[in-house]
Design goal:
89% helix, mainly alpha
Length: 114
Amino acid sequence: MAIGSHDAWIISLSLTVIGPGVGAVIGYATVAVLLFLISPLLALVVGLGVPALALALGPILGRFQRSGAAYRQAQAVLGDRVVDIVAGLRVLSGLAATRASAWCLTFGVRHTHR
C-alpha cells in the first residue's frame, strides 16, 4: 500500500490543526483541577468565566483583526518601497564610484575610497 504525497499532506495538516486544540483542552482541564483543589468557588468562576469571556470577545476580535490586516498590508507595501529605494541608492552609489574611479584614471589622480 502506497501513501501519496497528498495523503501525507492531509495527515500532517490534520495533526497541525488537532494538536493545539487537544493541548488547549488538556491545559484547561489541568488548570481547572488545580483550581478546584485550591478553591472550588474560584474554579467555578474561572471555569465558567473564561469561556463566557471568549464568546463575548470573539466578534470584537474579528473586527480588530480585519482592521489590522489592512494596516499590515499598507506596511508591507511601504516596506517594499523602502527596499526598492535602498536598492536603487546602491546602484546609484555604485555608478558614482565607477564614474569617480574612471575620472581619476583619466586624469591620473590617486583616488582613495573611504
